[in-house]
TrEMBL record:
Protein name: Phosphoglucomutase
Residues of the Alpha-D-phosphohexomutase alpha/beta/alpha domain: 52-190, 218-323, 337-453
Keywords: Carbohydrate metabolism, Cytoplasm, Glucose metabolism, Isomerase, Magnesium, Metal-binding, Phosphoprotein
InterPro entries the record matches: A-D-PHexomutase_a/b/a-I, A-D-PHexomutase_a/b/a-I/II/III, A-D-PHexomutase_a/b/a-II, A-D-PHexomutase_a/b/a-III, A-D-PHexomutase_C, A-D-PHexomutase_C_sf, A-D-PHexomutase_CS, Alpha-D-phosphohexomutase_SF
GO molecular function, one term: magnesium ion binding
Family designation: Belongs to the phosphohexose mutase family.
Subcellular location: Cytoplasm
Domain (Alpha-D-phosphohexomutase C-terminal): residue spans on this chain: 538-596
Listed transmembrane segments: none
Domain of life: Eukaryota
Predominant subcellular localization, coarse grouping: cytoplasm
Length: 609
């Protein structure tokens, strides 16, 4: 938690504080050298504002400084998490903590720092002694009934970044108020409890540290096997083959075991990307969503005549799939969006659950930035649907709530291809095997779903902007109109909330009229705003949680489109989620294209554009 008083502290005092706390020679030398060079701009960037702990944990570049990922800041975060757990969970130390890491630079060292902090306070530590994909940490939290878990990874971020994901005792990432409590505990426990972290050898010999990877992986894949929807291996009899890439990450051994668990024939792996490499040499961004990330996999599949490509991101919590299209088609391959993958898997699992005669009512979930096709599908199939805020911390917690109420919370997804990329991948392989065995394809099956549940077209994207002030001003202008307006203007709604606050959202974007507004930053939700002349007696409280610390505004339009704008919690991005729906696909596409064109010109004006 940042301290406002730090703004007045001389930079030399911050340098001295760093050198007094940091026990790592390499990062001490970085700051000392910057001080000798009198590089005050760089020192300000690294030391003035501490890295902020939130519901996403920590994520930043790996260099020296209070604002970065390094042994000291990871130790401080671990000490705060440890102290918060001791203060809030009875028997926390005996219940223990799970710690795992991926292959990124310094990931093992950061995991050792975390383990050291917890062992120092008497915790049982369940330590993954091998590179693991992210889902094995929350799975282990549930398996052992641990107090919490830590996964050291920056997922799909560039190679210079690393991160620190925290899971609570329910095996979900933390939500409020835990984030605020942990942040305060970090601020209160800044001085390292011991000078040097324990090494891997010392952890192995420690009486309260248990190495768990083999045991947990066996239990995890035994459970993966129970997810088989078909009674026979569908891919092998029909000769369907797959190309797979772990994108230089940790996914390969876990993907292989998942295929074995489902009885599927082995896939062909992209050799250049098969093994962990923290420098990610063949991709600019190791994210299967990014353009070009699947190029090597598609090229291999084309050469080998293999129709389906499967991919994980480096920590294998994301999943992507691409499929060869008929000869002469343009483009030659279709890469499915996260929303399309979500719909395909949701339909697959709902159909199989119904066939199995599950007596419990079925439920599905997705986040508010994900496709509205899922509620349309759920309504037609008689399945309960709920939406949550973005992030699997919200989806996971709500799914557990539904389970406690007697539902079979069958499936939840986020449009960003999350969150257990290995199980999602093997379920998709199963579905492909079934479809190809019937003489059809994934693309054709998706078209049949559009025909049944409605045409949905997405146009998601993002804008990079390294100027936080510019981002704040862009959202302020959307929310309040131009600076110092003399009046609301004919092109904007005017909603007075008292205490001098008047919201002035746009009435239209191009020819599309606004029919719904939700602003989760200031806590405002309004249906049919054109009919609202006064807020007196009107409940404008959003049904989802609000947060003043992040920007998020949603609109619906009379042409069937929805649009959400939000800031990223881990990158200097403004993300937009645009979707159109209707019965005529070409018309829907035209509506989406119109709004996508006008978005940067008339609504979100950033200097990077």
């Amino acid at each position: 938690m940042s301290d406002p008083a730090v703004e007045t502290v001389p930079i030399q005092a911050l340098v001295e504080r760093w050198l007094a706390l940091d026990k790592d020679e390499a990062t001490r030398a970085e700051i000392a050298q910057l001080a000798v060079q009198k590089d005050y701009a760089e020192l300000e960037a690294r030391l003035r504002h501490p890295i902020q702990f939130g519901t996403a944990g920590l994520r930043a570049r790996m260099t020296a400084g209070f604002s970065r990922m390094n042994n000291l800041t990871v130790t401080q975060a671990s000490q705060g998490l440890c102290r918060y757990a001791l203060d809030t969970v009875p028997g926390a130390a005996d219940l223990g903590v799970v710690i795992g890491h991926d292959h990124r630079h310094h990931s093992q060292a950061f995991a050792e720092c975390a383990a050291t902090a917890f062992l120092n306070q008497g915790f049982k530590v369940y330590y993954h002694n091998a590179l693991v994909h992210t889902p094995l940490v929350p799975y282990a939290v549930r398996h052992f009934g641990a107090t919490c878990g830590v996964m050291v990874t920056a997922s799909h971020n560039p190679k210079d970044d690393n991160g620190y994901k925290v899971y609570w005792s329910n095996a979900c990432q933390i939500i409020s108020p835990h984030d605020r409590g942990i942040a305060q505990a970090i601020a209160n426990n800044q001085t390292p409890w011991q000078d040097q972290p324990l090494t891997a050898q010392e952890l192995a010999a420690h009486p309260r540290c248990e190495f768990i990877t083999d045991v947990v992986a066996d239990a995890y894949f035994a459970q993966v096997k129970t997810l088989i929807c078909s009674t026979e291996s569908p891919a092998t009899p029909h000769g369907l083959r797959f190309v797979y890439t772990p994108m230089h990450g940790v996914g390969l051994p876990y993907a292989e075991r998942a295929f074995e668990a489902f009885g599927l024939a082995p896939f062909t792996v992209v050799p250049e990307q098969a093994h962990p490499d923290p420098d990610f040499p063949t991709v600019k961004f190791p994210n299967p969503e990014e353009k070009g990330a699947l190029d090597l996999a598609v090229a291999l599949a084309t050469r080998e005549g293999i129709p389906v490509v499967l991919a994980n991101d480096p920590d294998a919590d994301r999943f992507a799939v691409a499929e060869a299209q008929p000869a002469g088609s343009e483009p030659g391959w279709q890469t499915f969006t996260g929303d399309q993958i979500g719909i395909l898997l949701a339909h697959h699992l709902i159909r199989k659950a119904k066939a199995a005669g599950d007596a419990r009512p079925l439920a599905v979930l997705n986040s508010t930035v994900s496709s509205r096709m899922l509620p349309a599908l759920a309504a037609k199939e008689g399945v309960h649907y709920e939406e949550t805020l973005t992030g699997f911390k919200w989806l996971g917690n709500r799914a557990l709530d539904l389970e406690s109420k007697g539902y079979n919370a069958l499936f939840a997804y986020e449009e960003a291809l999350d969150k257990d990329g290995v199980t999602a991948m093997v379920l998709m392989a199963e579905l492909c095997g079934e479809l190809y065995g019937q003489g059809t394809t994934l693309s054709a099956h998706l078209e049949s779903l559009y025909h049944t549940y409605g045409q949905f077209v997405s146009g998601n994207g993002y804008y990079f902007c390294n100027d936080p002030d510019a981002i704040r001003e862009a959202f302020r202008a959307i929310r309040y109109g131009p600076s110092h307006p003399q009046s609301a203007g004919a092109d904007r709604f005017s909603f007075s909330r008292g205490q001098g606050q008047t919201l002035r959202y746009p009435k239209a974007l191009g020819t599309a009229q606004v029919t719904y507004i939700r602003d989760l930053t200031v806590g405002f939700e309004c249906h049919r705003p054109a009919e609202v002349t006064s807020l007196a007696g009107v409940d404008t409280t959003p049904h989802l949680p609000t947060s003043a610390s992040s920007e998020m505004i949603s609109f619906a339009f009379d042409n069937g489109c929805t649009l959400t704008l939000r800031t990223s919690g881990t990158e200097p991005k403004v993300k937009y989620y645009l979707e159109g729906s209707g019965s005529d696909r070409k018309q829907v596409e035209a509506h989406v294209q119109e709004i996508a064109h006008l978005l940067p010109v008339e609504l979100l004006r950033l200097p990077s554009q």
